[in-house]
Amino acid sequence: MKRYTLIIFDLDDTLFDYSETERQAVTEACGSFGVASTNDLYLKYRLANDDLRREYRDLNADTIQRFRIARAAHFLALIGRGDISPEDFVQRYLQHSTSGVLISGVQETLEALSGIRKVVATNGTTYPRLNKLRSSVIAKYFDGFFSSETLGLAKSSADFFLRVLQHYNTPKDEVLVVGDDYRLDVLCAAASGLDCCWFNYRKEPITRPLPATVLVLDTFSDLVRVVRGASHV
């Protein structure tokens, strides 16, 4: 029976609900500038985000801050608050993003898997993601944190996960990757020769055959059954 000694977790929409965390951060950042919360406030923020992503298609360490400021400027224009500095809004938004909304079952599952080394590896920037993890009740379960910023690689690189393995000197057959993004987590893990659990949090339709090393999790708590009973993924 296979025994996993290292589990590599994605962060957003794997451990934390990204949309709810973002909604909370936008609402609190707006409130700090005296902007009242309305039913369409977050919808306008998402509209600004989608508009700017057409211009900033590939985000990296060099472009992420420019994207954040441009997105803030567009959002503030949409809500008629051009008097607020986009730079100041981004700063407040990031501060409030350091408090995340956990996905149901995450804490209990991590507790049940005590004794297995766990780390986070995210494609995003270190701040505010590391702060979000550190300020949460699940921080105690993790031995490490890696971002594309600290590794110097995007998660789409086949070497992304291998860099984490090298850090812990762990063989591939003892490693399990858990993430929600089919392209960045599932395909990258498979390309690296690693077992992977695709946590299909947003219930995407599965329209293609999955690699043999990939298993779909319908709920996060299913991970306990996989790890305890896996002769293979």
Would you kindly provide a written description of the structure presented here, covering whatever features stand out?
The protein is of the alpha/beta class. It folds into two domains: 6-17 and 100-229, HAD superfamily/HAD-like (Rossmann fold), CATH 3.40.50; 18-96. It has ten helices and six strands, in the order E-H-H-H-H-H-E-H-E-H-H-E-H-E-E-H. The chain has helices at residues 18-32, 41-53, 64-78, 86-96, 106-112, 126-134, 148-151, 160-168, 182-191, 222-229, and strands at residues 6-9, 117-122, 144-147, 175-179, 195-199, 214-217. It has a six-stranded parallel beta sheet, with helices on both faces. Helix 1 crosses helix 4 and helix 2 (41-53) crosses helix 3 (64-78).
Radius of gyration: 19 Å
CATH topology of the largest domain, by name, is Rossmann fold
Tell me what the CATH architecture of the largest domain is.
Answer: 3-Layer(aba) Sandwich
Describe the biggest sheet? 6 strands, parallel
| Alpha-beta content class | alpha/beta
- What is the tally of beta strands? 6
Give the C-level CATH assignment of the largest domain. Alpha Beta
- Spatial shape: elongated
Q: What is the CA–CA distance across the termini?
A: 11 Å
Q: Please give the count of helices.
A: 10
- Total discrete domains: 2
Strand content: 5-15%
